[in-house]
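Design job #97: recover the sequence.
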C-alpha cells in the first residue's frame, strides 16, 4: 500500500471540530513530525571528541519543525496502525467513527486497496509491542506516539491506558508525552 502518507493526512484532517484538523493544512504527517519534534528534549550540537571537523561539504538545509521528508511510507503505515489501534483502544468503534474514517479516505481519493487495508486493520489492530518493534529511535518513537495520540481524545480509561502502554513500549520519556499533551490541549 503506497498511500500511507495520504491516509495519515486524511485522517488528521478528518478530525471534526478539532483545531488540530484546521492546523493540518500542510498535512497530517507534517503536523505529527512537528508535534514529535517539539515534544522531545532539546539537544545541543554533538561535538566530536576527535576535534574540529574538516568537512568541506556545504551545510545541510536547516530542518523546520514540520520537515516530514524523512518519513518513509513504511513509517507512515506504522503511524496509521498506531492511529487505528488507539481508536479501537476502548473497544468501541461506532458507525459514526467508522464513517468518519471512510469519509476521510474518500476525500483523499484513497482507493479500494487503502480501504481494504483499513478494514483488515480494524478487525486485527496492532498491539503496542508490535508497533514498538517497528521503531528505530527516539524521534520515530515520538512520531508514532504523536500519531496515536492525535487520533483520539483520551476520554476513557482504556484509551489513557493504551497511550501509557504505548509510551512505555516505545521507551518515550514522560516529559515528551507531557509536552505532547500540552501541545494537544490535554
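Job complete. Output follows.
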Amino acid at each position: 500500500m503506497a498511500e500511507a502518507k495520504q491516509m495519515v493526512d486524511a485522517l488528521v484532517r478528518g478530525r471534526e471540530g478539532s483545531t488540530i484538523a484546521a492546523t493540518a493544512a500542510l498535512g497530517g504527517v507534517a503536523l505529527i513530525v512537528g508535534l514529535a519534534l517539539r515534544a522531545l528534549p532539546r539537544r545541543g550540537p554533538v561535538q566530536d571528541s576527535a576535534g574540529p571537523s574538516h568537512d568541506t561539504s556545504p551545510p545541510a538545509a536547516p530542518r523546520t519543525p514540520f520537515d516530514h521528508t524523512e518519513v518513509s511510507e513504511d513509517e507512515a503505515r506504522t503511524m496509521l496502525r498506531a492511529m487505528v489501534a488507539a481508536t479501537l483502544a476502548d473497544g468501541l468503534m461506532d458507525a459514526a467513527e467508522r464513517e468518519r474514517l471512510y469519509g476521510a479516505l474518500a476525500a483523499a481519493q484513497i482507493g479500494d486497496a487503502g480501504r481494504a487495508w483499513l478494514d483488515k486493520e480494524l478487525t486485527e489492530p496492532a498491539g503496542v509491542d508490535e508497533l514498538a518493534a517497528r521503531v528505530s529511535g527516539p524521534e520515530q518513537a515520538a512520531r508514532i506516539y504523536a500519531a496515536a495520540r492525535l487520533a483520539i481524545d483520551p476520554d476513557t480509561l482504556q484509551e489513557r491506558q493504551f497511550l501509557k502502554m504505548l509510551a512505555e513500549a516505545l521507551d518515550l520519556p514522560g516529559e515528551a508525552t507531557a509536552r505532547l499533551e500540552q501541545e494537544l490541549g490535554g
